[in-house]
Amino acid sequence: MAIPKAMKFRCCWVIITARFSQKELFKLFRGRLKMNTATRGQIPAVLIIDLEVDPKTDKPFKIGAFRPDSGLSFEKTFRGEKGFHTALGEMAHLTSGLKWLMGHNILGHDLKYLKAAVPEAAWLELPVIDTLRLSPLAFPQNPYHRLIKNHKIISSEINSPLADCRACWQLFQDQCMAFGKIKAEKPEEFALWTALSDIPLPYRLSDDITIPERATPSDVKKLIDIIWLMMQDNNDQGRLKVCRTRFLELMKTDIRNPAIYPSLGYALSWLNVSGGNSVLAPWVRHQFPDAARLIAELRDHDCGSTECRYCQDTLNPEAQLQRYFKLPTFRDVKGFEGGQRAVVQSGMKGLHTLAVLPTGGGKSLCYQLPALNRYYRNGGLTVVVSPLQSLMKDQLDGLEKKGVTCAAMLNGLIEVVERAQILDKTALGDIGVLFVAPEQFRNTSFINAISQRQINGWVFDETHCLSKWGHDFRPDYLYAVKFIAEHSKNNGTVAPISCFTATAKPDVLADITNHFREEAGIEFRQFIGDNERDNLFYDVQEISDDLKKQKINELLHRELDHQSGGAVVFVGRRKSAENYSAYLKEQGWACEHFHAGLGNNEKADIQNQFVGGSLRVIVATNAFGMGVDKPDVRLVIHAEITGSLENYLQEAGRAGRDQADAKCVLLYDGKDVDTQFSISKMSQIELRDLKSVWKKVGWLNHAAYGKDHCGEIVATGGEILRDTEEYMSFDSDDRQADTKVKTVLAWLERAELLERKENQTRIFPARSGRLNLEEALVIIEKSEFSQRISEIYRTIAEIVFNAPEDAPLSTDDLVQVTACSFTELRGHLKKLEELGILTNDTHMTVILRTDNIKPADKHLAQVIDWEEKLWQVLKNEIPEADQGVWQNLSLSAVCHQMHEAGLETNPAEIKLLMQSLADDKAAERTNSSGSFQIRDVGNNLLKVRFKNPKSDSWENVQNNAELRRHISLCLLPFLMAKTNGVRQKDVMVETRMGELVQQLTDDLVLSVQIPADRRELLLRQALLFMHKQGIIKLNHGMTILRHAMTITPNPKALSAKRQYLAEDYKPLSVFYGEKRFQIHVMQEYALRALKNLAEGLSLVRDYFGLEEKSFKNKWFKGRLKELDESASPQTLREITDGLNEMQKAVVTDQSGSNRLILAGPGSGKTRVIVHRVAYLLRVQHVPASSIIVLTFNRLAAQEVKRRLFCLVGSLAAAVTVMTYDGMAMRLLGVRFEGNNREYGKGQFKEWCKKAVAMLSDDLETDDINDEARERIMAGFRYILVDEYQDISEEHYRLVSALAGRRCAEEDKLTILAVGDDDQNIYAFNGTSNEYIHRFQKDYNVAQPDYLTYNYRSTQHIISAANSVINGMAGRLKTLHPIVINPERQTQSNGGAWAKKDSERQGRVRHISLPLGCSSNIQAQAIITEIGRLKTLGEIAWNDIAVLSRHNAGLKPMQAWCEQNGIPYFLSADKSSKIKLRHTREFVRLIDGVEKQTEGFTSQDFAELIGEQVKKSGGSWCVWFRQLQTDFLNEYPPQDEELSEKSDNLAERCEAKIKASPKEDGRSSENGGDTVNRYSSAFLKSWLYEYVGDENETRSEGIFLGTAHAVKGLEFKHVFILDGGWQGADEAEQRLYYVAMTRAIETLTLLQTTSEHPWAARLPDDTERVVQIFTELPELDTEYRRLAAYRNTAAEGETDSKSDLDIDFIVCHNNIATVKQRLSVAAKLKKNDSLEIRRTEDGRYVFLSGGIEVARTVKLPPLPKQTTAYADTFRVRYLDEVGESFRQRIPEKIGTKKLEKWTLVIPMLVIPPK
Question: Where residue 809 falls among pLDDT bands split at 50, 70, 90?
């Protein structure tokens, strides 16, 4: 019979297909026959025929025939009936002298085609021998002889009917031997089979084969006697193997019906060897249905007779309980009658069963016992679907302990060789109970194996996984149900389905029953038990997290000190398990931790020790919950709340399984609820994930097959993630990433977008060069395999060894030749490779870039340059990584060092390179697993440590990397040579692993460096490295490196551009909503039980007893909205309390839509952004590293970050909060230099343009793989923009590129922008309200949101400001006026000052002064009003701001402050501004960082900052304290993370530093999970990014500044000077409005012109006063800080020269003088007096203690009374000095090289003229 064409598969290895010619295979097979099965004696005149039939047309197309007696053969391919007829005529000579016709399944297949073609042929009327029908009688325990697989013949050639004929002859001879043995040893049995068979039974007793003629009818009585003896149970005298009642009926009636004899023969043959280890072949059940019917009637139906020992025993639940489990009775179960027995009996009767039994109620026994019983009765298979590998293993181990040997499992724990054996045993009937993971139902090998079996039942353990309302919904369970329904349809009947769970509420049960009703058309017999257990005593205790360890220890002593048994402590996170376990060990407990991160062997050891009693306590995550069966657990403690009541009861149910009393204690801390929400969120698949993966599948298909074709794609989970992480809710670092990818694919499959299959890759087995065939066969024989496995190995070895050198066989060929499934064959090949008999080669396709833009060879050279420099950097940056200590690696700092070395790169490329280095393995060590462990914690920060600190050093990991580079340099030229000089972007070449290994072997250096057995491994590593770096792309064949999946997209879906829609996502959305609800329920239980345990338990009963709607209405009445949020009500209140309805709507938006917020002054714009980020972090649980917040300036960025730390604690550290320019710099990996270099606006624009180009470059060319953007933006999902009205063209383009505005919809970031068109005051910098208008169109915002409540100012101030801005053309808020917030609308319009100030009553005061009066007069008016206000109420100087249009008008106020000792901050002129990074104080800090070569702990660095506080004084104290706080927020001291909230961060940080012990910078025992040290480069990079391009620190006191400088600030009392306002200019109008809206309590406006632009518009309630003053000369005193630098052409203007001779202090011929100057300058502090002298050439020299410290350039003469003092200090670097001037500066001062010096900047006090 022909074997259908096998599918062409791909999997872990790929090779080139090649086949033997028919002639070669014929020779091969003839040789094999001669060697093994040469026939002795007379050969009967038999003609063996086999046809190949086209399954599509049902027409034969090829025939083969063989006459064993003559050796003649025939084979021909033909077309049509005529061709068939002709072929039969050509083979007529073979029919001469013929006595028998033979074939394999000739009766069921070939004969009908032959008779249809030549009905007149006499030879077709000859007796027929069908070897298929002989097999069950010849080999009853194994009807699948090694030459039969799935009822088909195994031959040695593909689609060769002649080869099948020869194989049929060999099988026939083996059958003759078998029948000969039966005839000789059991003649009565042979006589029985002869009588019942409808074909002759051939046999061999000596040399000759005898084919008897058809016997005369047998004596029925004799047959009855033989059958009676055959059916006796040899293990129990007097007992039959079958039902006595039905057997007697058979002997009376059925035996007299010859029509059923063949069926009866097959039934009796199987019954004769029944009881396991046998299988009734499916073709028998199909062709002889009476056989299966008779077996069922004889074995499965209880006759009820007390005389029938078979039914009384085999069909008796109690008897079977004793037989298999050695238990006397079944357990009772609350909730239904009959308990376990009722459920077992239902299963034994083959009824569809749904059972809910409490944890510990023995549900495993309820399906295991029926499965074992039915396997014994009919040899059928029960398939148990189980969600967890550990659960399967526990079940299997338990059965093995009870002596059950017919059970097995199939899951990821099973190695390929063992898996092949299990599949083989399953097909052969050796397995009766098979535990499988649900994903096995898409595995072809598994499907093929179970297709050979009668299915006794399908069991779903933990069946709640089927329901979207369940707590553990799994889509693969639904796929399994779909498969079962289709399988049942094909077989005409639904095998019994049983569903079991310990925790299912009514909605879940309804969902399950409806699903099975719709999919499989069945109804369940239901056994719904109560979840309560009388022996468990529950308790809930509220306790804070920091006290839980002690409480657990106390509970353990209380419960375990007086009794034996153990305890389980359940936690939610792996780290918690490790920490609690370590603590309990310290307390003397025999304890270990248990979680999914442990190795399989380690988990098994711990579990066994606990069950055995050597461990008394286990601290575990829920990985330990299911299936662990230790009877005497006396205490279960939940240290953290679980995600559902179902989980809680499941885990608590580990206690008291011996039915003795046990305690279950929940330790409740409200914070744990949010942890559960976070854990739940991390496991979720989002809609964007499904869309992104579907898009990636389309990309992969396009790359493999082009635009218009579709085919199988082989890809790993990592490959799918690699190019899509930017748009995913998880990335490849996620521990659950692989599972999540498979889950995504399962849902895409459910939406009929694709199909995921077993991955079947071609392998090229080749003979070992060390052995010949005879030696190989000897090894196989000595290995003591089972006979069947040994024969298969022989067959494979013979075929491969006899294959021609130039025509290797692939797995595709061997699958057809051997009829093995792919998985079986792969296991066989692997085993033969382990035996040294075969070697396996693999094929791959590689895509190379060979164009002139970025060819692969140049790309590799560039990567190697980067890498060589990177290794130098790493040893300095993360020096303790080799000790297993987590180290911080700043990608920005690395980029800076790269740039200094002339290597252009960016943080994304460095990150990718680091991830690639992490996979490097050693050449010599077989256990080498790579070099680094890496965690990306956001904000361009990686945490890095060695994977193997005990065995690795810096030297050997670098050697490993160097070796990998050399391998890459060896391989790439070889691959590029295969392109034959083609120059294009993507060139595909094909290669084999073998020839690549040969390249290494041929390399004189590498062949010595790399042992032969390590070459392939390191070669794969090099290929993977180049693949990750984008140097090459591994297409088919990538799967050699990692486990892969085979995916076939739906061609219709691709061509129609079908998307995964929100409608498709609904079931998942429902499930995640249910998960959220379950956590809320769990919290509700805890809170209720704390007050009243009975009430809490009542809630539990209702949860499992009521429908969900009724439950919610009873227990959450009036609070249903709480259930929509993934956070505790307390957390939600913390984030949303104090927000108005519109603010709350924006903050809590879950739509994922883009939003534009138009907000007025004081409306809480920044508050909305901060609280929105907090909501994303703490309620929606998005990763902090996925959020970008962009602000207009650095001070605003720092304010946002500080507020975030106050609101969400340490979660804020990973949020990216930056200015637009800062973000561009971070993307590019550039930073402000430490020297005095100035950066003009042109430089910032250039950086923004470069960043935009880097993000958008590939989009411009519409490249299908936007790799650059994906690499850079990986992980980012949200972007929030503050002050959007202040955005410039460059910044607008940057935001667009970051948000992915031009990308596909699912690839875009969600953007929220907040702006106020009324506050656009930087038009001179290119900002425009046009960008606000464009936002709606750019980001599909239908309607902006408006925030118009002013929470800042009084009603009088708001009205005055509105009067100025109202009526301006083009305003966006014309219809949305700014109003006071509702809470204050009933208060006085003047606020608190309405009562305090009887004169003004809180009104806006407008002071008219004499026309054209000077700023001196205006200052007096302000001074007078300040004095008046201070007499009425307590006013701090910090509360006051005096604002003007230009700085000059502020000089009299500055003079007043200076002369009266009043603290103030003057927003300086641009000409005298000093960058923070240039100040002496900041550089001192940098110097302190550079001096410490071993790096700093957080505490060390905080102390260093504290030292600067002492040295600097004044405003620097405040600045350094804030710096210290901000650093400790982001990098808290080891194991002392800052609490979630803080009001006084600076004081708390300082107290922490003083109180905490000194960190030693070393790792903990297990390598440490806390980063200890920060390198100097890391801290410098952080500091330079922190200060950016900002100017000097703001000091305390009155704010004196321009209206531009006050943007973003607010003050209680604001004064606005007149002068310089241009009324016709809308920008001026907005600027004045901004100045007004800074006021909180009082606003005072001055007018000195006849027509003030906006005074007339002020509302009627404005207080208008007229004042007159006489000028005060002292207020005209000028305080002028000398300009110390060129004012670089920041505004595009000509540079103005410095007032100071900036190199004077170091320019002197006498080195001692220079040293003295520098020494004095270093000791000077702010406000120290300076002497001033004028030189003859018109300069001024400044001295301290007689020592010159500064000198001006030539200046006009100053008044004689002019004095000076040291105002500030900046640092000058030698690098900045021109070459001509450097000669005047000494190289050294003493032994120290002079590289920088302090420049003293004096303040001149110039009296009035």
Answer: low
Average pLDDT over residues 1149-1175: 94
- Dihedral of alpha carbons 472, 474, 478, 480, sign: negative
> What number of H helices and E strands is found in the chain?
64, 56
Are 1034 and 991 in contact, with CB atoms under 8 Å apart?
Answer: no
Tell me what the mean pLDDT of segment 1123-1143 comes to. Answer: 93
Please give the Cα distance from 857 to 1503 (Å, whole number).
50
Reference 374, options 347, 398, 393; nearest CA is 347
189 band by pLDDT with thresholds 50, 70 and 90: very high
> How is residue 1574 annotated by DSSP?
B
Sign of the Cα torsion 770, 774, 776, 782 reads negative
More confidently predicted of 1040 and 699: 699
Asked whether the beta carbons of 689 and 740 are under 8 A apart, the reply is yes
Report in angstroms the alpha-carbon separations of 1041 from 296, 916, 1036, 1523: 50, 14, 11, 47
- What does the DSSP 8-state code read for residue 411? S
End-to-end Cα, the chain, rounded Å:
120
Kindly report the average pLDDT of the chain as a whole number.
85
- Beta-bridge mates of residue 591: 617
Instruction: Check: CB of residue 270 under 8 Å from CB of residue 262.
Output: no
Per-residue pLDDT tens digits for 1375-1422: 999 999 999 999 999 999 999 999 999 999 999 999 999 999 999 999
Angle ∠(152,137,181) on CA atoms, nearest 5:
115
CA distance 1360 to 61: 97
pLDDT value at 153 more than 90: no
pLDDT in tens, 710-728: 888 877 776 677 655 555 5
- For the chain, how many residues are written? 1809
Of the candidates 1561, 1554, 1558, 1549, the residue with the CA atom closest to the CA atom of residue 1495: 1561
The SS3 assignment for 765 reads: strand
Quick one: CA dihedral 1359, 1363, 1364, 1369, positive or negative?
A: positive
Q: Which of 765, 773, 759 is nearest to 810 (CA)?
A: 765
One-character DSSP codes across 946-1014: ES-TTT--HHHHHHHHHHHHHHHHHHHHHHHHTTTT--SS-EEEEEEHHHHHHHHHHSTTHHHHS-GGG
Task: Give the largest CA-CA distance in the chain.
Answer: 148
Place of tokens 């502020």: 1450
Tokens linked to 1727: 């406000």
* pLDDT, mean of residues 331-358: 93
DSSP 1715-1751: HHHHHHHHH--TT-EEEEEE-TTS-EEEEETTEEEEE
Select from 1150, 996, 1147 the least CA-distant residue to 1069.
1150
Rounded to whole angstroms, how far apart are CA atoms 1118 and 607?
46
| Dihedral over alpha carbons 1260, 1263, 1265, 1271 (to 10 degrees) | -20
CA atoms within 13 A on the CB side of 961: 26
Q: Where would I find the beta strands (DSSP E) of 775-826?
A: none
CA distance 906 to 1248: 14
Residues in Cβ contact with 1644 at an 8 Å cutoff, skipping those fewer than 6 apart: 1404, 1405, 1407, 1422, 1425, 1613, 1614, 1615, 1616
**Which residue's entry shows tokens 């403690």?**
637
In this structure, the number of other CB atoms found within 10 A of the CB of residue 1105 comes to: 14
Query: Of residues 703 and 551, which shows the higher confidence score?
Result: 551
Q: Model pTM?
A: 0.79
Structure tokens of 190?
A: 């042979």
Position 453 scores a pLDDT of: 87
Angle at 694 between CA 689 and CA 695, to 5 degrees: 100
d(C-alpha 1046, C-alpha 1039), whole Å: 10
Query: What is the mean pLDDT of the segment spanning 1004-1023?
Result: 87
pLDDT at 1784: 83
The first and second tokens of residue 1154, run together, are 């883009």
pLDDT score recorded for residue 1505: 93
Helix (H) or strand (E) holding 756, with range, is strand 754-757
